Amino acid sequence: MRPLEDVRIIAIEQYGAGPFGSVHLADLGADVLKIEEPKSGGDVGRYVPPYNTGEDSLFFEAFNRNKRSLSLDLGTPGGRRVFEDLVRTSDAVYSNLRGDVPAKMKITYDDLKHLNPAIVCCSLTGFGMTGPRAKQPGYDYILQGLAGWMDLTGDPDGPPTKSGLSLVDFSGGFVAALSLLAGLHAARRDGVGGDCDVSLYDTAVSMLTYPAAWHLNAGYRPGRTKNSAHPSLVPFQAFEAADGWFVVGCAKEKFWVRLAEAIGLAELLDDPRFTDFAARGQHKDELLPLLEKRFAEASVEHWVGLLTTAGVPTGPINDVEQALTEEHTLARGLIATTEHEVWGEVRQVTSPVRFGAEQPEYRRAPHRNENFDEVMSLLGYSAEDIRGLVDDGAFGALAQQAPS
């Protein structure tokens, strides 16, 4: 069995952060059942351009492989009945909504514990379920600004800069998945579930890590650094070669020694200005031009090859195409392929979460309400039960066409 094959998760999720968190659980074997609101057309991620047609988008595929889908209107009595029956047979309710919405929708532990005392209710919200911003919507870009990330990112002479990826969303998804698994462990040990109040804001602030510790304890004020340099270790940054950029990371004194010797500047090792991290940091404006001049003399391939052989941490600054075709990317099995009726062969990156030697299996993301029959069978509903729920609008208009 795959690690989470005995876990069922009801996922009231959409777009990026929530689905990103649960896709790793689905890859590990969890039965992740997406609840999609029928009136709005389900998960908005289905319609994200530019690579979209109808309800199928490559954006949606990237976040929802290995999941199932059920259209369900929780605002109807019938829809609520189906949801509660699912809670009785599931391990967790997972959502990414605004902080005040889980309580309004009655999907918190206090709302559901009478149905299943061991249910784990994981709510990933923008700002959490408490605090002055709880009712505000939270998006990655806004959170990168609020949490200080953008103030740290970019060129010293340029504007505050957002990361090229939605790292708050993705980090929040990982934190939500970790919290949910911790809750599942406790629930199976104690027989009692509970709430996981996870937020993008908490995630972003917590990831300030050592700059936060420096500031809180010593008044340190972080600033942007030229060429993405490390704030305290020198040299540890991007350098421009004759034909592109690469990174050198001297995180230990031994790497500085190897670097100087490998690039033919061994005389710098005897210079009192550069003897250790503290000295090199103090005299970086004298050291870095010497390194920049040397690195401009040859290609990225030359320097990366030379320094790798010398045992100095280094690597080219790849574009996305180069990263996806790296020999190590392919060797680590980081590209998966699924078959799709619209897109044909869909290739995408896989989850980095691993356990054991067995390789995950991958299937395409579900069409909206694709798993209607399976879920009805799981719940043991009769044909008469289903007709009554359809008439009540529990599944929205789409269910009229669902197989029965």
TrEMBL record:
**Where does the source fall among the domains of life?**
Bacteria
Against PANTHER family, the record matches this protein to: SUCCINATE--HYDROXYMETHYLGLUTARATE COA-TRANSFERASE
Descriptive protein name: CoA transferase
InterPro entries from the xrefs?
CoA-transferase_III_domain, CoA-Trfase_fam_III, CoA-Trfase_III_dom3_sf, CoA-Trfase_III_dom_1_sf
Name a GO molecular-function annotation. Answer: CoA-transferase activity
Report the SUPFAM superfamilies cross-referenced here.
CoA-transferase family III (CaiB/BaiF)
One Pfam family in the UniProt entry: CoA_transf_3
Keyword vocabulary terms for this entry: Transferase
